[in-house]
Design a protein that fits this description.
This protein is α/β, with parallel strands linked by helices. It contains 12 helices and 14 strands. It has one domain: Rossmann fold (3-Layer(aba) Sandwich). Strand 6 and strand 7 form a beta hairpin.
Length: 384
C-alpha cells in the first residue's frame, strides 16, 4: 500500500514513516520542515541532535534498501499539495502535518493565527484534493485528547448517546479545548466529519494522548535516525522535562498541585496504532474516532515515578511545586475510554516498564540540557 506521511520529519511522523517502510509499505514524506525553523526562532533544541531530513532518508535507504520519497513544501499551498498527491497517488494519507504545541499557539496573536491557518487551512486543502481526485483514499488524522478538555463525565470515543426530552440520538462528544492549538484540532475534526458525511470520504481521527520515548526498532538502528526529545517549555512535555531535570540534578518542577491528568502512550504504541488504523480502514462516509492512549497519569504521578526511578539509579531527585502559569484545572475528574484500538489488537507498552530505558537511561549527551531556563514556561498554553 502507498502511504503518504504528512509531517514525516516530526516526532510522531518520523517514527511512523520508518515503521511503515520497514513493514513493506511504499512510503513518502511530505513536510515543510518548518519545525526546524521554529526551534531556531525560539532558541530551543531537541536533546538528541536531528540530522537534515535528506541525510536521515539516505541513511535509512543505505541500511534497509527501502527508499522513502520526499516532498518539501507547505500544505497551505494548494498547488504544491495538489501536485505532490498526484505525483505519489497515495492510498492512505497519515496526517501529522500540524503545529502541535499549545504553549506555542498561546505566545501571542501572531502564533495563534499561524497555528490556526496552518492546521485548519492545510487540512481543508487536503480534504478538497481528496474529494476531487482521491475519494477512496483513507485519511488517518492525528487529533488530540485535548479536544475534550476535562469534563466531569466519562470521555467516550468521539461520540456520545444522549437522551433529551424523551428523544435519543448519538452525537459528536462535546469539545472543551484549552488553547488555540486545541481549538484548531476541534475545527479539523468538524471539517473532516463534514467531508465524510457530505462527500463520502473515509477518515479515522486518532485522538492521541501525550507521547513519550525516543527509540523504536527503526529509530534505534543508527544515530542519524534518532528521534526528537523535546524538554523545553514550548514543545516539551512534563514527563520529558522531569526526566531531564532528574538527570542533571535540577528539582522536578510541578506546576501547581500536580493534579492535572492526561492520557499517555509510548511512541512504539503510536506507530502501531497508526498501522492498525491503516490495516482496517474506515468505510466510505465514515468518520471514526479512536482515543489513542494506554495509561492515565497526573503530573504529580509522573513526578513521583521519575523520582522513584531516578533514586533507583543513584540520582538525588527533589520535587518542587511552583505556582501554575497555565490556565487549567489542577484537580479534576478524568476518565476516558480507549477500547477501539485495544479491540483491533494493540498490545500496549507501559510507562512503569520502560521509564528507565526510554527516558532516564540516555547517553552521556544528556548533559547538554544544562540551561535551567529551558525548563520554565514562557506562554500560557496547557501543560501536558
Amino acid at each position: 500500500m502507498k502511504v503518504l506521511v504528512i509531517g514525516g520529519d516530526g516526532y510522531c511522523g518520523w517514527a511512523t514513516a520508518l515503521y511503515l517502510s520497514n513493514r513493506g509499505y511504499e512510503v513518502a514524506i511530505l513536510d515543510s520542515l518548518v519545525r526546524r525553523h521554529w526551534d531556531m526562532e525560539l532558541c530551543i533544541e531537541t536533546l538528541t541532535p536531528i540530522a537534515p531530513i535528506q541525510q536521515r532518508l539516505k541513511r535509512w535507504h543505505d541500511l534497509t534498501q527501502k527508499p522513502i520519497q520526499l516532498f518539501v513544501g507547505d500544505i497551505t499551498n494548494y498547488e504544491f499539495l495538489h501536485k505532490s498527491l498526484h505525483q505519489f497517488e497515495p492510498e492512505t494519507i497519515v496526517h501529522f502535518g500540524e503545529q502541535r504545541s499549545a504553549p506555542f499557539s498561546m505566545i501571542d496573536r501572531e502564533h495563534a493565527v499561524l497555528t490556526q491557518v496552518n492546521n485548519v487551512v492545510g487540512t481543508l486543502n487536503l480534504l478538497y484534493i481528496m474529494k476531487e481526485s482521491f475519494p477512496d483514499c483513507h485519511l488517518v488524522k492525528l487529533g488530540t485528547m485535548g479536544e475534550y478538555g476535562t469534563p466531569n463525565i466519562d470521555i467516550e470515543e468521539g461520540y456520545i448517546t444522549i437522551e433529551h426530552n424523551g428523544r435519543k440520538d448519538t452525537l459528536p462528544y462535546p469539545k472543551q479545548p484549552g488553547s488555540m492549538y486545541h481549538l484548531s484540532k476541534v475545527h479539523d475534526s468538524h471539517n473532516i466529519h463534514f467531508a465524510c458525511k457530505m462527500w463520502g470520504l473515509r477518515a479515522t481521527d486518532l485522538n492521541q494522548g501525550v507521547v513519550y520515548g525516543v527509540l523504536t526498532e527503526e529509530t534505534g538502528l543508527d544515530e542519524l535516525l534518532i528521534n526528537r526529545l523535546d524538554y523545553d517549555g514550548v514543545f516539551g512535555t512534563a514527563l520529558n522535562r522531569f526526566c531531564i531535570q532528574a538527570a542533571v540534578g535540577h528539582p522536578l518542577t510541578v506546576y501547581g498541585k500536580g493534579g492535572q491528568t492526561r492520557g499517555f502512550l509510548d511512541i512504539r504504541d503510536t506507530v502501531r496504532c497508526v498501522e492498525l488504523a491503516i490495516a482496517t480502514p474506515a468505510n466510505p462516509g465514515e468518520f471514526r474516532v479512536f482515543n489513542q492512549f494506554t495509561e492515565l497519569f497526573s503530573v504529580g504521578d509522573l513526578a513521583a515515578m521519575v523520582a522513584k526511578a531516578g533514586s533507583a539509579m543513584g540520582l538525588k531527585v527533589e520535587v518542587q511545586n511552583l505556582e501554575n502559569p497555565r490556565i487549567e484545572k489542577e484537580e479534576h475528574y478524568f476518565n476516558a475510554k480507549n477500547t477501539n484500538l485495544l479491540n483491533l489488537g494493540l498490545q500496549p507498552h507501559f510507562l512503569s516498564d520502560s521509564l528507565l530505558d526510554s527516558l532516564l537511561n540516555l547517553p552521556s549527551n544528556i548533559r547538554r540540557a544544562s540551561t535551567k531556563g529551558k525548563f520554565y514556561p514562557k506562554s500560557l498554553g496547557a501543560d501536558s
